[in-house]
Amino acid sequence: MTDSYLVNVTATEQLSPNLRRVTLAGEALRAWESTSKPDEFVHVHIPGEDPAEGWEDDHDIARHYTIRRWNPEVPSVEIDVVTHGHGLGASWARDAQVGDVCAISTAHGYYGAPEGSTRRLLIADATGLPAIARILEEAAPEETFDVLIELISMDDAIALPSPATVNVEWRVSGNGRGPSALVSCMRSLPVPEGDAYVWVACESAESRRARTFIRQEWTRHHTLYRIVGYWHVDQEEQLRKWNALTPEQQAKYAAIWDESRPDEVNWLELEPYLQELGL
Ligand SMILES: Cc1cc2nc3c(=O)[nH]c(=O)nc-3n(C[C@H](O)[C@H](O)[C@H](O)COP(=O)(O)OP(=O)(O)OC[C@H]3O[C@@H](n4cnc5c(N)ncnc54)[C@H](O)[C@@H]3O)c2cc1C
Questions:
Q1: What number does CATH give the domain 110-233?
Q2: Which residue puts its alpha carbon closest to atom 7 of ligand 1?
Q3: Is the pLDDT score of 162 beyond 90?
Q4: Which residues lie below 8 Å from residue 90, measured CB to CB, with a gap of 6+?
C-alpha cells in the first residue's frame, strides 16, 4: 500500500490537440516526495473520494501518469495526459475543471542510465512524451540523445527544450490508430555503442517486441536498457486471457516476478513464460 495525497486541479492547458496538461496542487503534497527519476510516475485516483486501501492497483478507479514537473514551493505536480479517446483517464483530463478533487500516490521511477555514460536513445509513443520531455529538460549539457517518438498527429510534436545535444525523429503511427512502427524503425537505427543507455516506453505488446529486439539483435546487457509497457492496445482481451489462467499459472507468474531482482532480469524469464501462456 502506497500513501495517498489528496489534491485539487488548479489549472489545465491544451498543449497540443491530443495532449492536455493538468496541474494538481494541495497542502498534502508537502509530504509527497519526488524520486528524482525523470520518468517517475504516480497512480492518479480519479474519483474525488478518499481512496480505499489497495486503490493504486485498481484499474476501475486509478491510472498511471508521469510527473512531468514537480514544484515543491507551491506544492504542485503537472501531468500531461494523452486524450486518446474513451477511457477514465483520458475523459477525466479532457473534462477536468479547476477545483476538481483527486488523489495521487507515492512516486516510482525506472530511468537509470549508468554513471559515466552520456549517450542515450529514447523511444516512445505519445504516452512516453511527458517522460521524454522531462528527461531532456533535466539532462546535463554533456549528454547526447537520439529520440524516436510516435505520435497521433504531427501537431502533437511539442517543443522539447534541453541543455543537452538532442536529435529527435517524429513520426505518425501507432497510438491505437494503427500498428506501432517503433520496432520497425529501431531496425534501421545504428546499433547503440558502448555504454549508451536505451529507454523505451510505449504500448505493452510493442514494448515486449522492443525488448526482444534489443536483447537478441543489439545484445545489450540488461543494465543498459529499460523498457516499460505503458498501456494495452487490446486491454479487454488481455484481461480476459489473464482471468482465464489457472491459479497455478498465475502463481508461477507471481513467483517469476522477484522484487529483489532488477525488473529487466525478471523479464528475461517472464517473456518466454508469457509466450508459453499465449499472452
Ligand atoms: C509508468 C507509466 C507512466 C505513464 N505516463 C503517462 C503519461 O504521462 N501520460 C499519458 O497520457 N499516459 C501515461 N501512461 C499511460 C496511461 O496510464 C494509459 O494509457 C491508461 O490506460 C490511460 O487510461 P484511460 O482511462 O484513458 O484508458 P483505459 O480505460 O485504460 O483504456 C480504455 C481503452 O483505451 C485504450 N487506450 C488506453 N490508453 C491508450 C492510449 N494512450 N492510446 C490509445 N488507446 C489507449 C485501451 O486499449 C482501452 O481499449 C503511463 C503508464 C505507465 C505505466
A1: 3.40.50.80
A2: 65
A3: yes
A4: 81, 82, 83, 84
